[in-house]
Design a protein that fits this description.
Number of helices: 4
CATH topology: Alpha-Beta Plaits
Shape: globular
Largest sheet: 4 strands, antiparallel
Distance between the termini: 20 Å
Order of helices and strands: EHHEEHHE
CATH class: Alpha Beta
Strand content: 15-25%
Structural class: alpha+beta
Number of domains: 1
Helix content: 25-40%
CATH architecture: 2-Layer Sandwich
Radius of gyration: 14 Å
Number of strands: 4
């Protein structure tokens, strides 16, 4: 996944991610997301996670319905700029995997 981070928000974004709220982390785990990383380069954020559930759409809906996650997103979203080429309904734009090895 990818999106832009507003240049003036870099320090604040990093600060928040040094201490992600425990409730948000718990919701991520409950939604079967593991090995979640966000990388930063040239005002772009690149997100990676591994999904270990059976229904990612249902788990995404569960996450979006969580009140503490909604509070977190309300703080994060003004710092971010979604890509204009993202699909309808996406905030983070999904990326195409062109290479993988284990």
């Amino acid at each position: 996944m990818v999106l832009r981070l507003k240049p003036e928000a870099v320090d604040e974004y990093r600060k928040y991610h040094e201490a992600v709220w425990p409730e948000v982390l718990d919701t991520i785990r409950q939604c079967h997301i593991r090995n979640y990383s966000i990388f930063f380069k040239d005002n772009f954020l690149f997100g990676y996670f591994e999904y270990h559930g059976q229904n990612i759409q249902a788990d995404r809906a569960k996450m979006a319905a969580d009140k503490k996650t909604q509070e977190w997103w309300a703080i994060m979203e003004p710092m971010q700029e979604p890509l204009p080429t993202r699909k309808p309904g996406e905030w983070w734009a999904d990326m195409e995997e062109v290479f993988h090895t284990d």
